[in-house]
Amino acid sequence: MRSDPPNGGEPLLPLGGEPADATDPALETVRPGQPTPGRLGRVGPGADEGLADPGEPGRRQRHELWMRRALEVAVTGPAAGGPSTDPADGADLAVEDVPVGAVVYGPDGTELAFGRNERELTGDPTAHAEVLALRRAAQRLGRWRLDDCTLVVTLEPCTMCAGALALARISTVVFGAWEPKTGAVGSLWDVLRDRRVNHRPEVYGGVLENETAAVLRAFFR
Ligand SMILES: [Zn+2]
């Protein structure tokens, strides 16, 4: 687990960003020592220049606030209550499940849905926090497109979840701890910033990285 924030939670690829050359030295500031999958989008310092609305007041604070909510979901489980309609709510906590939490926010910042990793609880290999949160958010909105929505998750998404996020047309992804073993948003792969893909969400990694990593470390200790 990384201990230092790779980029301080700054955007890796602002929405609509113009892709930079894969040999851009700025890539090194995002995942030092990590192989890059080739044709990455623009990343690193200055990547959001003129693009991402860097002057928006309180964005970092909002992301951290949302991440704390995702952490709450991760450690307290589905019984915590909220907009979820999942029948598992109120069930015994899935203590065996890796504590990963995800929350989807609407364009106005309203919490639409949340999900906690329930793979062990449900015996479902696809029951990752992100997938559950996406499904519930889509159900609540009555559509599969989650344009202008933000998904916040405590751990870097895997390939499945990154694919699901892209398919949901989610606008922004905010994640906490980096996952060097399975991460698909900059670690092992970079599904969301692959410029061969038409839809590339705005990505913020390493938000509250220490806190989110600590929860996972405590679980695996
Ligand atoms: Zn996943």
UniProtKB/TrEMBL annotation:
Q: Which gene encodes it?
A: tadA
* Family matches, as InterPro entries: APOBEC/CMP_deaminase_Zn-bd (IPR016192), CMP_dCMP_dom (IPR002125), Cytidine_deaminase-like (IPR016193), MafB19-deam (IPR058535), tRNA_aden_deaminase (IPR028883)
Q: What is its EC number?
A: 3.5.4.33
Q: What is this protein called?
A: tRNA-specific adenosine deaminase
> Which metal ions or organic cofactors does this protein require, according to UniProt?
Zn(2+)
Return the similarity comment.
Belongs to the cytidine and deoxycytidylate deaminase family. ADAT2 subfamily.
Q: How does it assemble?
A: Homodimer.
Provide the reaction this enzyme catalyses: adenosine(34) in tRNA + H2O + H(+) = inosine(34) in tRNA + NH4(+)
Name the job this protein performs. Answer: Catalyzes the deamination of adenosine to inosine at the wobble position 34 of tRNA(Arg2).
> Which CDD domains does this entry report, sorted A to Z?
nucleoside_deaminase
Biological processes annotated in GO: tRNA wobble adenosine to inosine editing
